[in-house]
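Posting here for the record, re: magnesium ion.
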Amino acid sequence: MEANMPKRKEPGKSLRIKVISMGNAEVGKSCIIKRYCEKRFVSKYLATIGIDYGVTKVQVRDREIKVNIFDMAGHPFFYEVRNEFYKDTQGVILVYDVGQKDSFDALDAWLAEMKQDLGPHGNMENIVFAVCANKIDCTKHRCVDESEGRLWAESKGFLYFETSAQTGEGINEMFQTFYISIVDLCENGGKRPITNSSASFTKEQADTIRRIRNSKDSWDMLGVKPGASRDEVNKAYRKLAVLLHPDKCVAPGSEDAFKAVVNARTALLKNIK
Ligand code: GTP
Ligand code: MG
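Prediction output follows.
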């Protein structure tokens, strides 16, 4: 049996699973859990000290699921406390604040922390990850848009949800899909169903969209040197257009990336004789 498979997995029987929350301090992990379990929101920030533990029961199809939730503190100070709680986990709620770019950029470090603590025999492949882009109610401060978050999550085979613990938007949908995916995974012997594991776009497409988002000018966007010839610009453009054309590419953000490439080419050709 796989290391983090729960003990009982016969269809129809009750199942016990372990779920943890992960993400920077103050992104809203505890509030997301509170919103789902207690149907309320607390606006005052009460930092989680170490770990908060709770048990809840949910019904998925014909199974009763007993969920042990370990809500982790995001502050680096609590690393020592967190690190023993990563093992034997079936589901992770990975949260960032859409108004705090740092908290989005930190997601890779959270995965790395978990991987390191699971050790060489730990397997992240049989864990369901639900990424929550939280605090979507704070529209004025939003700096990580949906396609950027979705691209990150989906290129890793993770679930992605836009949530607000304050208004409740996306919270029930997130937990329902999350629990169904965990049960599916358990019933499938710890293997992700094919549809979940293989993103419907390639790594090259995802990397290219990210590169285009972060490019500093039109030359950089097309991946040519400043002062490149018309031919070089057109060649680079054609390559990107084939890769990102909305008819061919379903990666989140591909449409905007494609438009940006079209505009970059137009702008460059205007000034090249
Ligand atoms: P640590 O326990 O320190 O790791 O933080 P946490 O991620 O558990 O954050 P917590 O849930 O305590 O929320 C932090 C602050 O953000 C609190 O003041 C919450 O009221 C606020 N907050 C959480 N979710 C939302 C949300 O969706 N929208 C808004 N506007 N505020 C939120
Ligand atoms: Mg907390």
